[in-house]
Write a structure and sequence with these properties.
four-stranded antiparallel β-sheet; alpha+beta; elongated
């Protein structure tokens, strides 16, 4: 009897292989869930934009969450398949401490997230805040995804997961992830469209950078530069960016002593519905110039640097 117990203890001893297989499966699961929710939130933000005040320049790209899902979801499935293969030949491995700890931690985290999700909905209702379509979809996305993980591991803890049940869970997960990716591309466009969006976002960043240098130039010299190369001439550490899509320089047009335009050619329209502060960076597709005017009164002694205002 003592020998049998000793053998069972030896069998259930956690090896490095057991530890990293179980840890890898949980890491892959968490990465998949976070990426899926990131994907869904990005799609919802663009499909149902919230009209509100305050600065916002949300991402329109789903490249990273989609790429992460494509890699980590199969990794999770592969690791789980490998673990189940081990459990069929060595049932005592299911009682390993590392497996129990990771399972119950996952149940704790998912249960807490579900409770937080419901608290958020109830708070918005009791506080009289508007439950927008986008908000409701986000709440449902979190609830459905996290509930699936919670129910799967509850079934596992209760030893209710048969081979057939695992295949059903796999099918449901695959349909959910594939459907989310298809919805994302339907709302935000194909991978080629995503590339155009990234180019446009970089162009806006470059123009913001150029615009800041123009402000600094005016603050130092009390005049506007006549051309963009003057910016580099006044600052040996600054290199004027170029349009990385077509390798051409951005256009700067001085239209008056206090007026100027910075221009770029955009692939897609961007119409942000939120107030982004004084300077707006919404733009149509095609060539577009942001018209700016400097207020010289803001450069009086003791007053912070000027902020251009749109006309």
């Amino acid at each position: 009897m003592i020998s049998l117990n000793h053998m069972e203890t030896q069998t259930q001893k956690t090896s490095a292989k057991d530890f990293f297989l179980n840890l890898g499966a949980i890491v892959a699961l968490y990465t998949t869930v976070i990426s899926l929710l990131n994907l869904l939130f990005t799609v919802i933000n663009n499909a149902y934009p919230q009209i509100n005040s305050g600065y916002y320049y949300g991402s329109r790209s789903i490249s990273m969450p989609v790429a992460t899902l494509i890699i980590f979801f199969p990794i999770f499935i592969l690791l789980m398949w490998f673990l189940e293969k081990i459990y069929r030949t060595e049932p005592n491995k299911k009682q390993l401490g590392v497996r129990k700890w990771l399972t119950y931690i996952t149940l704790f985290v998912t249960g807490l997230t579900l409770a937080g999700d419901l608290v958020t909905v109830l708070y918005y209702f009791l506080d009289g805040q508007e439950l927008t379509v986008g908000f409701v979809f986000k709440v449902l996305a979190v609830f459905i995804v996290i509930l699936m993980v919670f129910l799967y591991y509850i079934s596992d803890v209760r030893n209710k997961l048969t081979s057939k049940h695992r295949k059903i869970w796999l099918g449901i997960s695959f349909v959910l992830i594939l459907g989310s990716i298809i919805w994302g591309f339907a709302v935000l466009g194909s991978p080629r469209t995503q590339q155009f969006i990234k180019y446009d976002e970089q162009k806006v960043v470059d123009l913001q950078n150029i615009n800041g240098q123009i402000q600094n130039y005016y603050q130092t010299k009390n005049i506007l530069p006549s051309k963009l190369s003057d910016l580099a001439g006044s600052n040996t550490y600054y290199t004027v960016p170029i349009d990385m899509q077509n390798k051409n320089p951005y256009e700067y047009i001085k239209t008056g002593n206090l007026n100027y335009e910075v221009c770029a050619t955009f692939n897609k329209e961007f119409a942000n519905t939120r107030d982004m502060g004084i300077l707006q960076w919404n733009h149509p597709a095609g060539k577009y110039c942001f018209v700016q005017t400097i207020n010289p009164n803001l450069y009086q002694k003791g007053v912070p640097a000027a902020v251009p205002v749109t006309q």
